[in-house]
Amino acid sequence: MPIKTTICRIGNSCGIILPASVLEQVGASDALNLSIENGRIILAPVQEPRQSWFVNAAGYQATQEESAWESGRLSDDSEWVW
After folding, report:
1. Given its phi and psi angles, is residue 2 left (phi above 0), alpha (psi -120 to 50 degrees) or beta?
2. Model-level pTM greater than 0.70?
């Protein structure tokens, strides 16, 4: 549902007031990315680098080989020269 808002003069620039509920719905806090596409102003929440890594890693299952590296125990270290 479109929300009508007015454009306010701020010095030599212009601004709009966004309802807090709108920012909450898109997960924005204090910064937005602004772009122009097909004559429309697009505002989107800023995605911090690596922000989704923990979410994506939550369901990750390590392979047997990866688990061996994490534990520090390899199945066969006879070829290693100490």
Report:
1. beta
2. no
